[in-house]
Design brief:
2 domains; mainly alpha; Serine Threonine Protein Phosphatase 5, Tetratricopeptide repeat
Length: about 190
């Protein structure tokens, strides 16, 4: 019987090791899935289209009074997440068309993404003064207030304006989701993170 007891003991140890390995590998796999999803969400920005950059730079050089190629360069750099370059071109475009709320709002977001939150807020406040009916400017103002300044009351007020202006548009819908997220976080007693 002693041999049987030793065999059962060894079998028990082996079973425990195998079960532990299986459970551990399942845990590690489950732990990695959110990381993989996060990494997939943080994909590289689209590459900069150098041919378009060359064409728009040429157009900007040929017509120093035209804001359009400068704004298009700002958009290209912004979309490629080269925000410092986009700032340069948006500022030039805005100098030529100081009342263009879209360019002003894009410039503000480029400021935000380069950790210039105060400049972003100032630019967005100018944007909504330029055109109080520009839903995207209000949406962005809410975003910067919430995430840049943790001013959740100010963010909600800006998002309410976006919803009033474009209740069925993408800006109004995004504002609605942000407010719902904000209220849901407060209802649970958790720190709000829209």
């Amino acid at each position: 019987m002693k041999a049987d007891g030793i065999a059962f003991g060894i079998a028990g140890i082996l079973f425990g090791l195998i079960a532990g390995w299986i459970i551990g590998s399942q845990y590690e796999s489950a732990r990695r899935q959110p990381l993989a999803a996060t990494q997939a969400a943080q994909q590289a920005p689209p590459p900069l289209d150098e041919a378009k950059v060359t064409a728009f730079r040429s157009a900007a050089e040929k017509d120093p009074r035209s804001a359009a190629p400068r704004a298009q360069l700002g958009d290209l750099y912004f979309n490629a997440e080269r925000f410092d370059d986009s700032i340069k071109w948006y500022e030039q475009a805005l100098a030529l068309t100081p009342d263009d709320v879209r360019i002003s709002s894009q410039l503000a977001m480029a400021f935000y993404y380069t950790n210039q939150t105060d400049r972003a807020l100032q630019q967005l406040e100018r944007s909504v003064k330029m055109n109080p009916k520009h839903a995207e400017a209000w949406l962005n103002l809410g975003f910067v207030r919430a995430f840049g300044k943790q001013d959740l009351t100010g963010a909600e007020q800006a998002w309410q304006q976006a919803m009033k202006i474009a209740p069925d548009g993408p800006e109004g819908q995004a504002a609605r989701r942000a407010i719902e997220s904000l209220k849901s976080a407060h209802a649970r007693g958790a720190p709000a993170n829209p």
